[in-house]
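Dig into these lines:

——
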Amino acid sequence: MKRLFNISVYLIVFFLLTGAGSYLTIRFLGTKKTIPVPDLTGKDILEANRIVLENRLYLKIDGEEFSTEIPSGKIIRQDIPPGEQIKEGRTIRVIMSKGPQHYYMPDFTGMTLDEARELAAEKQIKISRVIEVNSDTYERGIVISQRPSSEERGSGKVKLLVSLGPYPVEYICPDFRGLTVQDAKALAEKLGIEVSLEGYGSRIKSQSPSPGQIIKKGDTLKLELEYKEEEQLKWL
């Protein structure tokens, strides 16, 4: 009888201890601290791993991508945003940088700017800057040179030097008044300017721009003839 009593006591104590242990385990698991997610962007894998371990978190690399902003071997982004509150023991997944993707540049020189833009889009190359300069050799809108050149490896970006055409040639506008139409056209042709005739007659009465003003090669000179109406010629 006494032995049966002892066994009963042992069983009761066992169940009490087992229940208490389960309760303490549940209590322990349920009291994990909530912590802010650290910012791992731009960190290398060793530094990032140290940071997550200090915060009782885990780190997993989910892949690699090319990046022109984040150096190779550094973290580009993480799946849980920095500052978000999470429980200890969570895993943060990150994407690592492979650095910039290198391209062999096509030769843009001699193309029009539109042609260069079309080719750049086809090759997934960004034209980061277009610099326009005057050139006596290249027509307006033609690519003169590029950086990087077609013989260099680039990171998906190119700068283009584009022609504005010849340097502007300036003149002091001569006096066309009193000249015949034929002489006025001959003088304008020598200066490389266009003429626009208005009115009727054989001689120039007035002009715009006026004599003495600055004109450029390629400008248009407005010349007014002696008579505004054709009917006036009939009375001469």
